[in-house]
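Hey Z.,

So I finally got round to the T5A thing we talked about over coffee. Here's the setup:
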Amino acid sequence: MFITFEGPEGSGKTTQLARAADYLRAQGLTVLQTREPGGTPLADRIREVLLDAANTGLTPSAELLLYAAARAQHVVEKIKPALQRGEVVLCDRFADSTLAYQGYARGLDLNLVAQVNLFATGGLEPDLTLLFDLPVEVGLARAGARAKHLPDEQREDRFEREEIAFHQRLRDGYLHLAKAHAERFRVIDAAADVDAVWQRTRAILDAEVLRRRGR
Ligand code: T5A
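And the result:
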């Protein structure tokens, strides 16, 4: 099963993904934990370029193609082989991030972004997508609070510098995707505390992953 974790800045999806991996492993499943952009040595090098706040000159189309290049490598080298081995793959962000960030928030044509996604993924789609949704201000406050504890060079990625309207378009875009693909999306209220969000996440994993596998 291929499960993706999506959400805006500060949504806490990475925290929940780590708990989900521990939980599913404790139920006897083999789990691959991975993330985008990145997941392979080559894709991690593309990640460094994409997240470097000093790269202010990156054009929207170059940005889109770099995310796609990292994903193409990640899908072939890591995700597909794990799925073929029968593992559960938990991926922190995937193609929906590109639709939400480069499409809805950045303003690139959505059909074009969908075509590029299709080319990069070879048609691979998640079986289940957990969307961690929360008000923009709450997410940005969390991301800001965490940044205070980081060294200067890791303090802000390029997106945390975007205006509030960008982040609002991002949230609306994600909610639109969730409605359009209701068969695979589950929306989780991520504004609650970590344990409350985990209760909801675990209930979805129980229903959609463990019961399906007869556990
Ligand atoms: N991107 C990515 C694109 O534009 N297009 C694409 O196609 C793709 C794949 C990736 C960036 O790239 C963009 C999106 C991103 O901007 P990243 O550094 O990997 O950059 O950042 P994120 O994916 O946003 O992941 P993070 O791990 O940084 O943030 P999360 O998922 O919100 O993670 P988390 O769990 O670390 O939480 C953030 C902070 O909040 C706290 C945590 O302790 C942490 O300090 N927290 C909570 N606080 C209160 N209540 C809760 N329930 C909390 N849950 C977590």
